[in-house]
Structure formats: C-alpha cells, structure tokens
Design brief:
The complex is a heterodimer of chains A (443) and B (358).
Chain A: H1 3-25, E1 32-39, H2 46-65, E2 73-80, H3 85-96, H4 108-121, E3 125-126, E4 144-145, H5 151-166, E5 176-182, H6 185-188, H7 191-201, E6 204-210, H8 218-227, E7 231-235, H9 239-251, E8 258-260, H10 267-270, E9 281-284, H11 294-304, H12 319-342, H13 350-358, E10 361-362, H14 364-369, E11 379-380, E12 391-397, E13 402-410, H15 413-431, H16 438-442
Parallel strand pairs in A: 1-2, 3-4, 5-6, 5-7, 7-8, 8-9
Antiparallel strand pairs in A: 9-12, 10-11, 12-13
Chain B: H1 13-16, H2 23-43, H3 46-72, H4 80-97, H5 103-122, H6 130-150, E1 163-164, E2 168-170, E3 173-175, H7 178-201, H8 203-213, H9 215-220, H10 225-252, E4 254-255, H11 262-275, H12 280-308, H13 314-335, H14 340-353
Antiparallel strand pairs in B: 1-4, 2-3
Helix pairs in contact in B: 2-7, 3-7, 3-8, 3-10, 3-11, 3-12, 4-5, 4-6, 4-10, 5-10, 7-8, 8-10, 11-12, 12-13
The chains are: A alpha/beta (443), B mainly alpha (358).
C-alpha cells in the first residue's frame, strides 16, 4: 500500500469518526417525548421481529397523528440488535443518552442484561409477554414491567388448557407432556412453573431443548416419536416454530396436540407450513390477529393512507404487529398516566414514567375508547404487581388464519404468587436489595 | 522524518534488552498509556465507555491471548470462546461459593481454571496440526456450550440458565461508574500486555516461535514440543479466561452461554488474523477493527444518509454494515496479508525515509 493511499485512508476514517461522534451527541429535541426502539430487522429472527417493530413504530406515529400525548409529540429512533445481547446493550447505551422514556428489548437475553442497568439509569423496562417471570414483584424489581403476562402465566395457562381438553386437572395424572424449547433464558423460563404443576397433578414433564436458531430439530422429533408424549408444548421463536411444525408433520405428530406460547402463535410461524399446521393451537396474549379492530382501521386511515406506514399494508392487524402496537400503547399510556401527576403537556423523565406505569389503570371503557375493543381486557398495575393482568386466550390455525376461541383463561394467582415471591426474594438477597415497603410505594 | 534512531547508541546489555529500544518509541507508548489513564476518563462519555472502550479493552485482551497461541506458537484454535466461558463461569462460581472472595482473586482464578481446561484441550495439538487442530479445538467450544447449558451446578441452579453478578469491589473500592470499570479493565490489559510482550521475548516465547516456524527443526535443537505447545495453550487460555471473566463481570453483568458462542471464537480468530499474527500491537488493532467498525458503520451510515437527504431503513443499514465490513476484511487481507500491524510497520518504514525516498 502506498503512503499516499494510507494517509488518505487515515484522513477519511478520522473525518468519519468525528462525524459519527457528533451525530451521536446530537440531543433529541427538548419538547418531544423520546422513545427508543430496539428492533431486529435482520438476523435469524427477522421474520418475527419485523412485524413487531412495524407495529411499535406505527403506533407511535398514530399517536402523533392524533396530536401526541396531551400535546407532547413523540419522537423515536430505531436501533438494530439482531437479537444479540451485546448489540442490544450497545443500543441501550446509545439511545439512553438521548433521554429515553422506556425500553422494550423484545429479547429475554437482553432483558436479563438490562435488568442490572435499568435501576442505575432510572429507565423503566417494559417486557410485555416476556422477560423475567419473577420481575412481576415490583417491590424488588422496581424498574421491570412484565405487563400483560409472563412465561409462568403462559406455562400455567397451557397446562390448564391441556387439562380442559383432557376433561379436568385430575385427568392429567400419568400423562406425559413434552416441552420443546428454545435453549436460552427465553425457553427455560417456563420450566419451574411447569415442574410445579407436574408435581401437583402427577404428569411427567419431558424437556427437549433446541439449539439456537432452531433449524435443526431432527433429533428432538425422533425423541418425541419414540416417547409419544400426550401433548407437546412449543416454546419457540422465529424459524424454530415453522421448523417444529414441519417436523411434526413429517413425524406424524398430531398438530392438535401441540400448544405454542404466544411467541409461537403468529403468521410467520405457520404461513410456510400452511395446511400442514392446521389444528395447531397457540396461546394468545389476549389478542390474536385483529384485522377488524377499530385501532387497526384508524391506523390504516391516519397513518398508512398518508404513506407514513412503516411496513406493508397487509401486515397491519397481524398477530405480531398487534403485539408491537400493544407494547407501544402501554409505554404511551404510562407516560399519559405520569402526566396526570407531574403535569400535563410536559415531557416525562424515565423516573416519572415509572410511576405512571406502576399506577396504570386501563379499564375497558378507556380501552374501547382507544379502539382496543375486543383486542384486550383491562390492565391495572400496582407497586407490588407489575404485571397488571394475566388474561390469555387460545387461538387455532385453521390453515389460512388464526381463529381465537371465546373462552378466556387466567393464571392461578395463588400458585404463581408464591413462586414469584420466592424467586424475587432470592434475587433481592443475592443483589442485596431491600424490597420496598407499602409506605415507600406511595411515594 | 519525525524521528530517527541516529545517535542513540546502546552501551549496555540492559539498554539493548529494552522493550522499546528507541527513546521516542518508548516515550510515545508511555504517552499513550498515560493518555488512556488520565486523558480518556476526562473526555469520554458514558456511551463511549460502556459501548466501545470497555468491550474493546476486554476483547483486545482475549485477542492477545489467542495471538500468543495462534500467532506465536502456530496452533490454530477455534475454542477461544469456550475458554472465555470457562473463565467467566469459574470466576462466577469462585465469587459466589466462597464467602469474602476478593474480586481480583476470583478473576485470576477464573483465568487459572481456564488455563487448566486449555491444557486438556491442547493435548490433541501434540498429534494433529493446522486445520485438523482447529477442528479438534472446536470440540472445546461445543463441550463448554453443552456443559454451561446443561449442568445446573455451574449456573448455581438458576432456572433460566442466566447468571448475574453485581456489587464489584476491590479493597473497599466499589466499581460502579463506567469510568471505574474502564480503569479496572485498563489496569488488567496494560499489565497483561506487558506480560505478553516479555513472555514472547523470553525463552518461552522463543520456543513457541521455533515450534511455529518448523516443529521438527525445533525438536532437533532441543525444544520439547509437548512443553512448548502445552505451555502456549495454558498461557493463552489464561489470558482468554481472564478476559472472559472481565467480559461477564464488568461488561455484561449478567450473561448466558450464548455470550460465548462459537461466533465469539471466530471473532477472536479474525481479530488476530486481521490485526496481525505474532504481534502484540496487532491484537489491539484487530480488536479495534472488529469491535468498533461495525458500531461505527451502524451510526455513520444513517448520518451520511441524512447529509445526502436519504433516510436509510434500519434493516438496510444493518445489511450495508455487514457488506462493508466484509469487503473491508477482504480488502485488507489482499492489500496486506500479514495484517494491519504490518501495515503500520510499513507506514513507519516509509515515514523514516520521507520526504526523500531512494
């Protein structure tokens, strides 16, 4: 390499570095509520990450189109994590400096890493339908909000559903239930809850891990073929789900006996399998695909019709798109609630938003007013309960679309509360955290 | 042009054995280290520390360890990520299972455990060479992935398989703020880089290099291949293990085996190849290239787009990042197969003659 070329390269990279530093230090405008958006539009999980991200961003645009939160406009910035923990942490560090309101990492691995950081930076962490199950206990996990449901809720409801099919919880005795799970904190989260239930009802739990990203499942399904479990729980994400369904089809395992978690119950998971996945059930985190909801119509009219839509129009109303929208809605409502206390029309800090999220009270009337009628049920959080609701429906793939069933399930509060308290106390002890008392909660 | 060694005569053996024989070089390095300790904490912000400098330092330490094995001893390894994992999990277990375990001791014990495991997985190197050895070390990677995922004891029966550590303390000094974490890592890396430099100049390093250049000839002149190869594995794994412990304790705080996956092993090997095999300085440039460049591209491309007036979507930025990163690797390997460190050496050579080349 010639000296001149070398000097030129050095000069160019120096200029580039400077401009990058300048661009990162540019602060978000003061009168806007800034929402960082951690997404994964590339990598092994992009097919599922994309609709969620589009729904999230579109909802923020919709709020802006409706005039913001009491007049405060929303701004946002995406950062690509590719579902990798270290990139997620980098994104967090990058965006928190811009006055982040709340983070939603959409990855249990990143959630674990950020749980340590959020209290220091005083930024709440919403993990709607994922994350650490014990973080429901707000007295220890002050900054975590696993709103709408945790994996223990999912596991509990899945067992209830299987029992109902079998004709009662007592009929579970002697049955064999296999858990096919993504071998990561995400997939391992439900295991304690399932083990608890297995002890109570006397069924056998078979654990079958699948390595990331989950395209290699031949051995797993061979085991299923040999041990013939009565039911299979599918705890997968991304390409792992469609692979599992294809393998089930190949090994002839009845799809009707498979129940997926809400992350294994979206269109990208079954579309490629099509009719082969017919009869497959999945939990629905309250909502299923909701193309007829009012909020979806609003979205099409006020955002997509103006050419502002983030993704393709057809995607609006699909399961993961709805999940993204709900997640964004929860953040926005947290800020709205905080404004009631700290001043309407003001930009809320992370700490103020945390109060809002902790005192969230979305009753059916409010939800209906926002266009979420039929999509979700009321959510009410408190200092001790950061989850707010544990309603779950079951949806079935009919070969072309998801059909939600009409009966609603709720996790066994008595059973889970004890587990949550045990796990969170253990965490508090390890980290030397003093749980908040009810008096401190009122502050 | 800038400086020459003219007039600097070595009159003693001690002077001849200095790490940096040229005064200007010595002062330059001292100035860089002083800047890292004093200047950087004054100018860098939290993002810079947490997202760029700390990962860079820790991975540079790991790359240094890999370079000792691959660059100096010629034994290709694809198990570096596994040794990082061993270091991290061993340090974690020492920390939580023994009451009052000092942090530094836990980190070093993590490194020692990793060295032990490194020796075991280094045994195949006595029989197989080159690519075959690379495949054999890959076994370490898969074994460790399996062990830390399946054996509950290693993760203290954590139900999710994720472990976390907090409240880092050294002699009553709580390492909490990003700048403290940075300084903590910096102390480690400076000491270990010095150690590595001296090792490679001493008997052990010379034995490694002899084995690398031609193992039969080395054996003929009286170097024991078993001792040389296994010591290289041990020392390299020790460095990598310490880096792993720092990665878990200081950088992540909470981790799962995926943090030390096979991707990490490849990443470390690429750092060494791109930075320069058999060069301490090369490990640093390699780490900088691999850690900083993707993040830089990720932020620079949207900024560039906004200057031109184009909004680039997040996905397009990520794809472009991978494409540019890949092409730069190919470009640098074609232009200078010996790595960026060699490029730096050439630049210095040329500058010596500038502006009057022959």
């Amino acid at each position: 390499m010639k000296l001149r070329a070398l000097a030129l390269a050095a000069a160019i990279s120096a200029v580039g570095l400077t401009s990058a530093t300048v661009s990162t230090s540019a602060v978000a405008q003061a009168k806007e509520q800034f929402f960082p958006v951690l997404v994964y539009r590339t990598g092994a999980y992009a097919a599922n990450g994309n609709p969620w991200a589009n729904g999230y961003v579109d909802y923020l645009k919709l709020v802006n189109a409706k005039g913001g939160i009491n007049g405060v406009k929303l701004s946002f910035e995406e950062c690509e994590t590719a579902y990798a923990t270290d990139r997620g942490v980098e994104c967090y560090e990058r965006l928190k400096g811009k006055g982040a309101t709340v983070f939603q990492p959409l990855s249990t691995g990143v959630t674990f890493a950020l749980t340590e950081k959020a209290p220091v930076d005083k930024i709440p962490l919403i993990t709607a339908g994922y994350g650490r199950s014990e973080s429901q206990d707000g007295s220890v996990f002050t900054w975590n909000f696993p709103l709408l449901g945790t994996y223990w809720v999912g596991a509990d409801v899945a067992i209830q559903y299987i029992a109902k099919q079998a004709g009662g919880l007592d009929k579970l005795k002697g049955k064999k239930i296999a858990l096919v799970y993504h071998d990561s904190p995400f997939g391992k989260e439900p295991i304690p809850a399932l083990q608890e239930r297995a002890k109570m009802h006397g069924f056998e739990l078979q654990l079958l891990p699948v390595a990331h990203p989950g395209v290699e499942q031949k051995a797993t399904w061979l085991q299923i073929r040999q041990s013939k479990p009565d039911n299979v729980l599918l705890w997968g994400w991304g390409v792992m789900n469609s692979t599992a369904l294809k393998e089930a089809q190949a090994t002839g395992y009845p799809r009707e006996k498979m129940t997926g978690i809400w992350w294994a119950g979206a269109e990208p998971d079954v579309k490629d399998v099509g009719a082969g996945a017919k009869g497959y059930n999945a939990l629905a985190l309250q909502h299923s695909a909701e193309p007829n909801a009012k909020v979806v119509k609003d979205m099409l009219d006020m955002v997509h019709a103006k050419g502002q839509g983030t993704g393709p129009k057809e995607e609006v109303g699909s399961v993961l798109y709805m999940r993204g929208m709900l997640s964004a809605m929860l953040s926005v409502e947290g800020v709205r609630k905080a404004q009631e206390r700290y001043g309407k029309g003001k930009v809320m800090t992370g700490e103020q938003t945390r109060w809002g999220l902790e005192n969230l009270n979305l009753d059916q009337k409010t939800l209906d007013g926002m266009g979420f009628a039929g999509v979700m049920r009321p959510v009410q959080t408190s200092c001790l309960d950061h989850m707010g609701a544990s309603w779950v429906r079951i949806q079935t793939w009919d070969g072309a679309k998801w059909v939600p069933a009409n009966d609603w399930y709720q996790a066994d509060e008595k059973l889970l509360r004890g587990m949550v308290m045990n796990a969170s106390r253990k965490y508090a002890e390890e980290k030397k955290i003093t749980p908040r008392t009810p008096e401190q909660c009122k502050l | 042009m800038l400086y020459r060694e003219n007039g600097q005569f070595k009159t003693t053996y001690a002077a001849d054995q200095q790490i940096f024989t040229i005064t200007q070089d010595k002062w330059f390095v001292i100035a860089v280290i002083a800047f890292a300790f004093i200047g950087v904490p004054m100018i860098a912000d939290e993002y810079m520390f947490r997202a760029i400098l700390i990962p860079f330092l820790i991975l540079a330490l790991a790359a240094l360890g890999v370079n000792l094995l691959v660059g100096y001893c010629g034994q290709i390894t694809l198990g570096a990520g596994a040794f990082m994992a061993v270091g991290a999990y061993a340090a974690y277990n020492f920390q939580i299972r023994i009451d009052g375990m000092p942090l530094i001791a836990a980190v070093l014990l993590g490194g020692l455990t990793s060295a032990g495991i490194g020796i075991i997985f280094g045994i195949p190197s006595l029989r197989v060479r080159g690519l075959y050895l690379a495949v054999a070390t890959l076994a370490a990677q898969f074994f460790c992935d399996w062990a830390f995922l399946r054996i509950q004891w290693f993760t203290n029966n954590s139900s999710s398989g994720s472990v976390s550590i907090s409240n880092l303390q050294v002699f009553g000094w709580t390492i909490d703020a990003p700048v403290e974490k940075y300084l903590f890592c910096l102390v480690f890396i400076v000491l270990f880089a010095l150690l590595a430099k001296n090792l490679t100049r001493a008997t052990m390093g010379r034995q490694w290099m002899a084995i690398r250049d031609m193992d039969v000839a080395a054996e003929v002149i009286g170097i024991r291949p078993m001792y040389a190869k296994l010591s290289a594995f041990a020392v390299s794994s020790f460095f990598v293990g310490v880096a792993g412990a720092l990665w878990g304790f200081v950088h992540l705080g909470s981790w799962e085996p995926a943090a030390f996956s096979v991707d990490r092993s490849f990443q470390l090997l690429f750092m060494v190849i791109i930075g320069g095999m058999g060069s301490i300085f090369g490990s640093f440039i390699g780490a900088a290239f691999i850690v900083i460049l993707p993040i830089f591209l990720n932020q620079f491309l949207p900024a560039l787009g906004s200057i031109v007036g184009v909004t680039i979507s997040t996905a397009a930025v990520s794809h472009a990042e991978l494409i540019i990163f890949g092409s730069l690797i190919v470009f640098f390997l074609i232009v200078e197969p010996h790595g960026l460190a060699r490029l730096w050496a050439i630049a210095k050579e040329k500058l010596r003659l500038w502006p009057f080349p022959h």
